[in-house]
Design brief:
Layout (H helix, E strand, L loop, with lengths): L2 E5 L12 H7 L4 E3 L8 H10 L3 E4 L21 H18 L3 E3 L10 H18 L5 E4 L15 H11 L4 E6 H7 L3 H8 L3 E6 L15 H10 L5 E4 L13 H4 L2
Parallel strand pairs: 1-2, 1-8, 2-3, 4-5, 5-6, 6-7, 7-8
Helix pairs in contact: 2-3, 3-4
Length: about 260
């Protein structure tokens, strides 16, 4: 049976961020994830995690100027010092929160850019070299072009090739079923093929990105498929509730 992690960036928005930890625990979640923790000191977040008996499954490295549309700086060789500072900052938070995997966003660049590809691979090598000794994996996630136009890593095959070429057991795939369906379809077969390199899984309905009890994907089948391929990590609920967060949690009982 999947173990679910509430995404506190998208869910429980009826509460202030630090209060979402208690709300998620009270709703039955044993884990949480979020995009960025950097607006709060790591000790403050760690206290909420410990107080509520939660595990932090994942968070993202600093993305650059997110409000202005940036989604990572790893593809920009001219911003390598900023990237390295972000690595150090993410590591501080990861160690304070006991996180075992962090998502390194690539950035916006043409997918066929040789310069961006080389910079991204070099950035991943640096990230793995820093995080692996601390027992923390780096995950990369292909994002669909409808929601994230211009994002460099926009194909699962591209991500799988990068992971294979760098050949590090600490570099893995973040498999978001929502993005996979929009980009490629054939989600179950892709899950089976990618299972050995999957480091984290996320879910949402397609096309609306709401609770996983409606839309194109049969999540009852896909949750069983995750068990069949031997995935034992957390499944991040990275969706936008249709209404109140608590009102939409019935799927956790009906689909598993």
């Amino acid at each position: 049976m999947p173990r679910f992690a509430a995404n506190l960036t998208m869910m429980f928005n009826e509460w202030e961020f630090l209060d979402r930890f208690a709300a998620a625990a009270d709703a039955g979640f044993e884990a949480v994830e979020f995009l960025f923790p950097y607006d709060f000191p790591p000790e403050q977040i760690a206290a909420r995690v410990e107080r509520n008996g939660l595990t932090v499954a994942l968070f993202n490295h600093p993305p650059g100027d997110f409000a202005k549309g940036e989604r990572g700086v790893a593809v920009f060789p001219e911003r390598r010092e900023e990237f390295r500072a972000g690595l150090e900052r993410a590591l501080v938070y990861a160690q304070a929160l006991g996180v075992k995997r962090t998502h390194l966003m690539a950035g916006r660049a043409p997918a066929d850019s040789a310069a961006a590809d080389a910079a991204f691979r070099d950035a991943l090598r640096e990230a793995v070299a820093l995080f692996a000794p601390a027992g923390i994996d780096i995950v990369i996630e292909p994002l669909n072009a409808r929601d994230n136009p211009g994002y460099f890593l926009n194909d699962f095959r591209q991500a799988e090739e990068i992971i294979a070429s760098l050949a590090s057991p600490s570099l893995k795939l973040q498999f978001d079923l929502y993005h996979c369906q929009i980009m490629h379809g054939d989600v179950a077969m892709r899950l089976r093929a990618a299972a050995p390199i999957i480091g984290h899984v996320q879910i949402a309905s397609v096309p609306e990105r709401n609770e996983p009890d409606d839309g194109e994907l049969n999540y009852r089948y896909l949750f069983a498929e995750l068990d069949r391929v031997g995935y034992s990590g957390f499944v991040g609920c990275e969706y936008r509730p249709r209404g109140g967060t608590l009102d939409g949690l019935g799927w956790m009982k009906t689909l598993v």
